[in-house]
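The protein record passed on below.

***
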Amino acid sequence: MGKEWDIVEVLRHSRHDWLNKLQLIKGNLDLNRIDRAKQVIDEIVIETQHETKLSNLHMPLFAALLLKSNWENPSFKLEYEVMFDPDASKINDLAVTKWTHAFFGNLNQAIEPFQENNLSITIEPQSDGVRFFFDFSGIITNRELIEGFLSDKTFDLSIKEFTETELSLELFMPMLKNNSV
């Protein structure tokens, strides 16, 4: 299911990301754009809060996939948001991770590289399972590839919108029975 990352590679990528963020803040301060520097810091805080919520979902495989996604999928930028529900159910981490990994792979092949391609995932834990909202905006050049992938009826999937520049879909993963994995 993709490349295995060792701890040194993860730290190297993470350090690189943090250095970029610090340089962005420093650059804005050097240009005396204090408000923009504060805005960058606020964005970092929000992003870090979502990382924390993602890590606390008890879905380590899915969390790892999302956390390293922007390092592995250069054709689109991923953002995610986790709506927190303390009574959320446990779902099949491996199944949702495999599906999402395959979706990322198909998306990478079906879009125009080097464009403003953005994928946003909203994760909404509920008492009976977890809803995942995938919203893509960018340039889809191979609609058939995506259609073929989404035609798999193994999962509870509903497509809300699908055009050359947008794809919105919802995936529902039901609660595991008896906490089995």
The chain has a mean pLDDT of 87. The helical segments are 7-30, 34-55, 60-67, 69-72, 93-110, 143-150. Residues 7-30 form the longest helix (24 residues).
